[in-house]
Amino acid sequence: MKAVLNLFIFLNVWSPSQMYTFSDEVSLQTMIFPASYDRYIRPGENRSTPLQVNVTFYFKSIKEFDESISKFSITGALSVDWVDHRLTWDPNTYGGDLYSIVVPQKKVWVPFLVNMLMYDAIAEIGHNDMNLRIENDGLVNWVVPNLFESTCDADLSYYPFDTQTCILRFYLPGFTPLEVLFKTPKQTMDMSEYSDNALWQVTETKLHTTTNNLQLQEVVMSVKMKRRPVYYISSLILPVAFLSFLQLVVFWMPPECGERVGFATTVLLAVAVYLTLIQEKLPEGSEPSVSFLSYKLLGDFMVGVLITVGVVVGLRFYNREEDKAIPNYLKRFHKIVVGKSFCECKKKQKKVSFEDSETFRNTQAVNELKDNLVSENLTWRDIGIATDRFCLVMFGFVLLNCNVVYIIVIASFY
Prior knowledge:
Layout: H1 2-14, H2 22-32, E1 51-66, E2 71-83, E3 100-104, E4 114-115, E5 131-135, E6 139-151, E7 163-171, E8 180-183, E9 200-211, E10 217-227, H3 230-246, H4 260-281, H5 292-318, H6 328-338, H7 340-349, H8 363-377, H9 380-413
Helix pairs in contact: 3-4, 4-5, 5-9, 6-9, 7-8
């Protein structure tokens, strides 16, 4: 008896006794889409209550973010739900299990969403040949996969360690919040189908509604993303830093080689090329300021120009004729830069005995005589060496501080 009862239950559960037919679906579509159905009139039997439209966004990928033209584009699907009271039926009348049907978009009223921050000409979201699903209680589910583009002004102050926030704003022309009310069941985008981007890392997404100054309700979608800096560090930051300090090598090159000016000019042109590459990539205007990297490269370029000038000045000292007198200010400059090491070296070349003389017992007189002896042995080559040493220390200090300040500014952002 128990086996018979179990068999009876199995047959009632699994038997396809109630299945809607093709004729049932044709009849249903004929019934819910009569000639009186107007797809241009919004749903809602009670006109004093706004039609609630629920919006969800399924984020797929970042297609493009071009800072130079302020273009931001992403791929994804916009899921929109609402209830159309005219599209309801009793499933029992149509085979017993016809709970939902799929119809073309062009047969049903759909919200004509427009992107407020469109990059190109205005275009309708969705396509008339796309389908949507209607439930027997009138719930319409419209999923619109598309490429969504908008304008996005980038803040490139910390490029290439920057974080950008781009926004897409959709509204329904002609309808106020008293007629159509947007709701966002989820406060963030759905990232379950998201594919990582090679250049950008999405750190935060938001989805909410707001009312603008025109009293039109908007659906606002924002994407906060952080640039992946590894590529830029290896191809831009490190080469520029190495080039900056490579300029200092020119002061270690012997003046007799004849390549000092050519070397300094070549490195200077390399820095100028990097500066040009960055300026071509970045937009002409950036709020709140231009990239700090541009300022750093400009500073490196200016230091490179001064290094080249220093090399030329030093070579003029090296090649100056020895019969020309050395001005006193250059002698003082040499004494400040070179210091006692040069004096000790010169004393070894020309020794003078002071201990047997009564004239030089005074210490000040001894020092003056030493200075005179050093000045007599000072050559234009010594002035050139002092110039190289001064430029090496000064420009090395400037370049080091330039890089340290840039690192501190970037570190404060992180």
